[in-house]
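quick one, three chains, predict together pls
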Amino acid sequence: MTRQIALIITFVSGFAMVASAFFKPVEHWGEDVAEWFNVLAAIAFVLGAANLAKVHLEKISSRSPGWGYSGLTIFFFTFTFAVGLMKLGVHPMDKFPAVAMSGEKDAEGSAFWWMYAFVMSPLTSTMFALLAFFVASAAFRAFRAKNVEAALLLGTAFIVLLGRTFAGVVLTGWLPESLSFLRLENLASLILEVFNSAGNRAIIIGIALGVAAQSLKIMLGLDRSYLGASN
Amino acid sequence: METAAATASSWFDGDRAPLLGWLILLSMLVLASIAAARRGKKFPIRRIAGLVAVEEAVGRATEMGRPILFVPGVQDVDQMMTIAGLTVLSRVGKIAAEYDAQIEVPTARSLVMTAARETMQASYMSAGRSDSYNPDLVYYVTDEQFGYAAYVTGLMVRKKPATCFYMGQFFAESLIFAETGNAIGAIQIAGTAESSQLPFFVAACDYTLIGEEFFAASAYLSGEPDQLGSLRGQDLGKSAIGLLMIVVVFVATAAAVTGVSGLTDAAEWLRKLVGG
Amino acid sequence: MSLLERLDIIDRRWIFLLMALAVSIPIIVSGMTGKTFPESATPTTQTAFDTIESLPAGSKVLLAFDFDPASAGELQPMAIAFTRHVASRDFDMYFATLWAPAPPLIIETIKSVIVAGHPHMVYGVDYVNLGFQAGNESVLKVISTDFKQSFTVDARGTPVTSIPMMADIKSTEDFDLIINLSAGYPGCKEWVQYIVSPTLSGDHGTELKLVAGVTGVQAPQMVPYWPRQLKGMLAAIKGAAEYEALVNASLMEANPGLIISPVFNEAQRRMAPQLFGHLLMVSLIILGNVIHFSRKRAGGTAVKALRSTP
């Protein structure tokens, strides 16, 4: 019964989204459905937080390997939540100077802003920067001319890697104007704008059709595996 | 007559009529193919290496006594790639249940956790191993993209899963996952339609489901007539669009080269027909 | 074990160390000397610059900052360069974002460009910070028809109905240009799909112009939309450096003797570490292939460490 309800909701929501794209009197339906989802996702935060607490508190209580990390997670989760909720260090708004909590929680100088600027910002930047190292090791290991296609890929990579830096200018800048299309920076642009565009368009069309067909299957209840039901 | 047209334009977005036409055509092709499949018509499906390897990868984890890691992407259940990932999870979960292998599913969204739990529970039930299902192995980590990446890679280094699945929508964290998985010697199978991340998965994983292959996974893994029929309908739609594109390119090129007004009008009409 | 065999199974941390050196030494040297490489604009960058240059006086420009601190290394120099260019033309600037972590980046940009460089500009009259709005593409669908339904107040909590420069804004079609800085979802692709594409056909009158700055990974995915849906695009830090050079040259031409602060050369300074990082990668790929072919010649099997997608 629960799954039948879920299937009905899926069909109605999907139909509303499709109808809103074509029929003017109901064009707000799509936005309404998206807003329902946002409300649901916001409520689900509570579920997520409860699950996070449960998983890590269990790890701490059972002293399972890495329980110290769980302790840190719980501590910083609670700390961040409290800082945001209590608006620690927030400056009052000009309009309400007597109300200490009237300012924005993430206004400059507040505790939340400090955490953003000096904890979250450097940590996420560090994680992103790891890509430079991983790209290098992946390139060393996997970029080998094992066959003609791989060799072509390799050649393209060289042109783009060199053409997107000053190395391209140094290596091929001497070519006369009549042969300027052979300069590495121009070849890199050509690869991006012509060959890459063509390939990407094909992938985009294929993916769009795949999404449309998958959506249809889900709307009609032909694919219910995501609900934990067999078809 | 004009009043009727004005009334129609007040309730229907005429600019999108070609799009609606294509949508109806694709739906008809999919439904007709499903009906044909139900009548017993066989639709062959090409071998997809990444999906053939699923059973072997789960078996390897069982033999080694190490867990399986399943990452359903970093987006919510309103994204089709997440749904496609959960579809693959249902099959992987069933095989894992049959082999009695442990499968861990950290998620980056609360709703994905809830959906993944339902999926896993049903998989264990259909494998006749409901008693082995542990909901605590499907859990929420954080919505923060790199916080999630840090957790998952930490988990990989500590638990050293024998097999890692990355099925869903990924962004910059894709290479972080795949390289860490490679470093711990795991078999890695990825699937995404996020074209910007495909090169990273292709370079660092053992198998990658590219775009459409990812959406075809449920049909391939189940082999059910409905699923195979829908796949054929999708392919027919793609062929129709491909054919029309060739015609448009030919007519537009001819119009540009010859300058014949009839061809220019035809090219413009075709452009509108494809929704341009 | 031969040298090549040893190199083949090298601990990847050595590669990490080499990359760290290849990036950090040029950063230090370029920081000390202040020297940068000359940049010439690629067509995607040049069209972005020309699109802004071609706008008439009094144009309204929406700057959508859809990125977070993680991708600020690539996108913040673009954000600064775009804002400088738009501010130098005295256009009205509307800042907004669909990413929760982006508001501090908007504030930082406003401070370093508008407050420091254009103190005559008045908040609410010449520029406004509309802050963050949750809801991803559903926000875009709403603002394409009713801007004030989604952005009801600005980042300071002031109702938009009482902000003078918001009076003429009913939907996104009232902007003369949208500049989007995109690091993923929601981002450039969604702006194209929900905001620009509907104005390209039918009875919408004028086509809405969109210019984007995107990360290196996103660029191949977005370039098919150029030059129709995207009037210009800065691809990665290279695009940022090219654009920065164009903006600096244009400002120096208009104000001879102008001294450019190092903050406004940031993208160009980052091209030095990019050069050496790329050179290292090319060297590693060549080395990997030397190992591969030497093994093949010796009749060896595929390299053990090698994993690849069939």
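The first helix of chain C runs from residue 3 to 8.
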